[in-house]
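Worked Example 4.2. Consider the chain below.
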Amino acid sequence: MTIRRLPPEAVNRIAAGEVIERPAAAVKELVENALDAGAKRIAIRIERGGLGLISVEDDGGGIPRDELPLAVERHATSKLQAGASGDVDLLNIHTMGFRGEALPSIGAVARLSITSKARGAEGAWIIEVEGGALHAPKPAPWTGLSESGARIEVRDLFFATPARLKFMKSERSEMMAVSDVVKRLAMARPDVAFSLEHDGRASLRLSAERDPENEGRRARLAAILGADFAPNCIALDQTRGDVRLSGFAGLPTFHRGTREHQHLFVNGRPVKDKLIVGAVRAAYQDLLARDRHPVAALFLDLSPSDVDVNVHPAKTEVRFRDATLVRGLIVGALSHALAGAGHRASTTTAQGVLHAVRAYEAPQPFLRSSLQSWGAAEERLAPGDFMAPSGRVETGAPMFAEPSPDLEAAIHQAVNHDPEDARFFPLGAARAQVHETYIVSQTEDGIVIVDQHAAHERLVYERMKQMLSNGGVRRQALLIPEVVELDPAEAESIAARAEELAQLGLVIEPFGPGAILVRETPALLGHTDAAGLLRDLVDDIAELGEAHALKERLEEVCSSMACRGSVRAGRRLTAEEMNALLRQMEATPFSGQCNHGRPTYVELKLSDIEKLFGRR
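Applying the procedure from the previous section yields the following C-alpha cells:
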C-alpha cells in the first residue's frame, strides 16, 4: 500500500477525537483555558447536554486581536516558552492546558466562535471557525463579565462528524458529565466563582471564597459534596521532602458505595490516578468493609519537574518521578489524621437512626381491644401488684450483673471515675445494658448507645496491631523449605527486599536464577500458601515499590483474632466493666468503627430525642 499524507481536515478531526470525545471534555478544556487566563469568575451555559450549545465566559486577560487566528491553530499556545536553545521543557508544566489542541480540535468538529477583549484594548473582536473552516477576525460588541475577558461559544458539537453523534448518551447523562467536570475544577479553585446553567436553569452557583487554603476550601467542598461533608471530615496537611499533601478526608463511618466521591488533585489539576486511589484504600483498609469507600478531597503539591502530566491527551493521568514517596506520604498522612480523630464517628450515623425511628400510631381497633383487656386485667390485680409488659424488664432483675471473672484484665485496669463525673466524658456514663448487647450511657447533653462486641473488637485489634509493631512478628520455620519459581527479574526484586520481609516474619533467600527459597513464614498466618504469598508480594513491589500484601494479610489475621476474642453479644457486663470499656474507647484510635467498617456507637443529642416526642 502506498503511504500518503492525510489531508489537514482529517488530521484535525482525528486529533479532535482524542481530545474532545464528549461535551464534558470540551467544557473541561475551555474552563481550564479560562483559569490559565487568570479568571476569577467563570460562567458556563449549556443547551441540550452540550450538543446544542456550550458557552464559557470569563473575566480573564482576554486574547489580543492579532493572536486570535493563532489561538485556533494546532499546537499554538501561550503556555509553553522555548529556552535559549529553542527547546521546550515539557516536564516543567505550570498551567492547566499547554498542548494547543483544544480550540482547533473543537473548531474542527463544531461551530466555534471566540469573542475577546484583551486587557487595555479599546474594543472586542470575534473569530469564527466552522467545521475547520476559519473566518477572519472582525469587531464585535462587548458585554462581558468585566472590562476584559473572553466568551467562547461552541454550537452543534460534532455536526462535522455525524458518526460521533451516534455514540453520545442522553442529554441528561451528558449534562451530568459536564456538571461533574465543572465541580471538580471548582473544588480545585475555591478562589474562583463558578456558575453553570442548563437550558436556562441554574444548576450550580458558587461564589469565590476569601480563604482558599483552609475554611474557604472546606466551605467550597461542602457546597459541592454536600452539607454532611464539613462536619464529618478531617483536615490534612503533611509534607515529606518537597511534596505536600493537604485537603480533607471523611471519617471511616462517613462512606459511600463507589469511589466517585474520592477527588484527587495534583498541582491543582483533577486527576484519576491508580497510585493515589490505591494509597487511599490502603489507609482505610481495616476501617471499612470491602464494598465501601471513603469520601475524600486530596490536594498534592510538588515540583512540576517531579510529575509528568503529559501522559494522556485529556491530561487526567499523571506519572510521578518518586511514586513510593508519594504513596507513603498519602498513607501516612491519612493514617495519622484518622488516628487523631480517636473514637469520633460521623454525624450521619445518628441521622440515620433518627430517620429510621418513626412514631408508632396504633390502629384504633387495636387500641380499643387493648384498653378493654387492660381494664379486665386491672380488676383481677390485687392492690400493689405490678404486671410488666411481656419482653421488657424482668421484675426484680438487677440493673447490672455481678462482675464476670474472665473479662479481659485490661478492662478492669482502666481508671474508674465517679459515675456522675463520667457524664462529662465524650461517651458519658454507663446507665444500662440492653439485651446483653448494647450499652446505654448518659452524656452531658444526650445519650450514647454502644455495640459492646463491635467496640471491644476494635480495642483488641488496635492492641494487637500495637504489639505487632513493637515486638515484631513471630516466625514459624518450615519443616521442608519451599522453593518458589519466579521470573529472574522478579526473583531479584523480591530478594532485594529480604531484610524488610524478615521483619514481617517471612524469611527468604535466593536459590539460583529465578528461584526463591522460603524458610520461615509469619506464625500468625498458620499454614499458608508460600508461593501465592510471594507472587502477591512481587506484584506489590513491581507496582508500588513496597510489599503491602504481607502487611495486609497479617492485619486481616489480627482482625479475625480480635473478632473471636472480644466480648460477645449476649454477655452481661457490670457497671464498672461498661464504664471501663467507654473510657478505653475514648483513648483508642479508630474506635468509632469496628474492623468491618460498622459504627461502634450512636450518639443522640437531647434535642434530637425531644424531636422524636414532639417536644421541639
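The two ends are 83 Å apart (CA to CA). Residues 376-416 have pLDDT under 50 and may be disordered. Compare this with Example 4.1 before moving on.
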